[in-house]
Amino acid sequence: MALPTTIGNLKSLKKFYISANQLINLSDSFGELHNLIDLDLRANMLKLLPETFGNLKNLINLDLSFNKFVNIPNIIGDLSSLQRLNMQLNMSESLCFAVSLKKIEHWEIFCKPENLAGIYWKS
């Protein structure tokens, strides 16, 4: 399943909860939801995020748990307001990332400690 490409027309959308809908991908127009602050995409079938996802500069809460990500997408590092990230229970036990999480206050991820070496915070 996929969301319509016209999703980007919802310019005033601030909260979007679309969990457990068997989404396989997100269209590029998703990056046009500039006012989005809270996004719940848990329990879908996502493996990748569109490059435009990094345009969601106001996003504070992001739940990508129970999807099929093997790595945390680098584009997450472009989410300059992100404070809460949930990547629990994705495809790989070795889920790891090397992205800058500028304002992150809370994150949830099941990962082996030796795979956390690439995580760093910037102030």
UniProtKB/TrEMBL annotation:
<dbReference type="Pfam" id="PF23598">
    <property type="entry name" value="LRR_14"/>
</dbReference>
<keyword id="KW-0677">Repeat</keyword>
<dbReference type="InterPro" id="IPR001611">
    <property type="entry name" value="Leu-rich_rpt"/>
</dbReference>
<dbReference type="InterPro" id="IPR050216">
    <property type="entry name" value="LRR_domain-containing"/>
</dbReference>
<dbReference type="InterPro" id="IPR032675">
    <property type="entry name" value="LRR_dom_sf"/>
</dbReference>
<dbReference type="GO" id="GO:0006952">
    <property type="term" value="P:defense response"/>
</dbReference>
<feature type="domain" description="Disease resistance R13L4/SHOC-2-like LRR">
    <location>
        <begin position="6"/>
        <end position="104"/>
    </location>
</feature>
<protein>
    <submittedName>
        <fullName>Plant intracellular Ras-group-related LRR protein 4</fullName>
    </submittedName>
</protein>
<dbReference type="GO" id="GO:0051707">
    <property type="term" value="P:response to other organism"/>
</dbReference>
<keyword id="KW-0433">Leucine-rich repeat</keyword>
<dbReference type="InterPro" id="IPR003591">
    <property type="entry name" value="Leu-rich_rpt_typical-subtyp"/>
</dbReference>
<dbReference type="InterPro" id="IPR055414">
    <property type="entry name" value="LRR_R13L4/SHOC2-like"/>
</dbReference>
